Structure formats: structure tokens, C-alpha cells
Amino acid sequence: MLIIGAKGFAKDILEILQQNDELNQLVFYDDLSSDVEAELFGEFPILKSMEEAEQYFLNVDARFSIGIGNPNLRAEMYHKFTALGGLFHATISPKTEIGHYGVSIGKGCNILSGVKISNSVEIGMGTMIYYNSIINHDVVIGDFVEISPGAMVLGNCKIGSFTHIGSGAIILPGVIIGDYVKIAAGAVVTHNMPDNVMTAGVPAIIKKINYYN
Residues in domain PglD N-terminal (predicted)? Predict the structure, then answer.
């Protein structure tokens, strides 16, 4: 498998692959950082060109995952590497608790240790769910969403695509969050939020309109 990125979140994905015993012929990709060495932790090669990545997909393993946290950049990397022939692959820690009924997890999701996902949950592609977050029943999450450590999304919520939920934030039952929303760490969201806003506080209020524009 190829992991896009060789810093930060890419190291969290490495731990998932270690837990799943999926280290065979694993490589990372970073064509931007001048300070990365030839190998991550002296063991895993770091590719530095799209040509190398394409050859890896053709000759070794077509699967890739995205070790970058920004939702917009993740979507950009998805399109860039699928155009090379890569297959977007989910990485899910075995230390995650996932409901047995009505759960759908999209391609390319990254789900870390300690996450709890209830029944009747739909998660779009490319979404990342960090350590110890809780996704309650009957929740729909869009594409390329970022859910930070310890966040809670309670029952019957809908989370739009490209939204970022900060660490420890709580989305109360039945709340609908739009696309491209930034929810600050520790916020308690009690009512619906439109697209393209930043919200913070307890209870959360809109702090900035057109946050992503």
C-alpha cells in the first residue's frame, strides 16, 4: 500500500497497518518536504515523484490511503492519485468498535483506535475519525469529513461533506450540519448549521460566515 504523506497523520495510519499486519511492501509518498529522509523510521521507503507512484501502482500494489488531515487537500490527493490508477483504500484499526447492523463505511476512510460507531451509520468516502470519537445511531456523515479526537456525534445527526469537527466537540441529537463547516474544539452544537460557517462555544454560535471562501 502507498500512504500519501510521510509526517503527522501518516504515522497514525502506519500504526493502524501495524495493528492489521499490513506492512508488506508499504511505502509513503512526499514530494514537498525537503527534510524527509529516504525511508520513514529507517524502514519504509518514501517515494518522491508521481512517476514513482505510478510505477508502484502498476507493479506492486494499486491501493493507497491518505495520511493528510485537511479535508480539501485529501480530496485533491484522491483525484490526483486515482488518475494514476490508484485504488482508494480504507484503513480501520482493529481496536475500533463498529456496530453489526446497517453500517456503511466509504472507501478511503481512516478510523483510529478507540472509535465507537453504533448501528445504522453511513460514513462517506475519505472521512477520517480520530482516536476515541463516538458516532451514535442513525448518523449520516458526508465525504472527506474530519472528526478530531474525542468528538461525539449523537443520534440522528447529519454531517455535511468537507466539515471539520474539533476535538471534544459534541453534536447533539438530530442536528444537521452543512458542508464546509468548521466546528471548534469543545463546542456543543445544539442547532442546525448552514454551509460554509465556523462555529464555536457552549452552546455553539456562528463565529464567521463563509469560512472556507
Answer: 2-81
CA distances 173 to 35, 148, 166, 169, 197, Å, are 45, 18, 17, 13, 20
For residue 29, the Cα-to-chain-centroid distance in whole angstroms is 17
Q: Which of these, 87, 55, 79, 67, lies nearest to 3 by C-alpha position?
A: 67
pLDDT tens across the length of the chain (213 residues): 999 999 989 999 999 999 999 999 999 999 887 777 888 999 999 999 999 999 999 999 999 999 998 899 999 999 999 999 999 999 999 999 999 999 999 999 999 999 999 999 999 999 999 999 999 999 999 999 999 999 999 999 999 999 999 999 999 999 999 999 999 999 999 999 999 999 999 999 988 777 665
Q: Which residues are catalytic?
A: 137
CA neighbor of 150 nearest in space, from 108, 200, 185, 197: 185
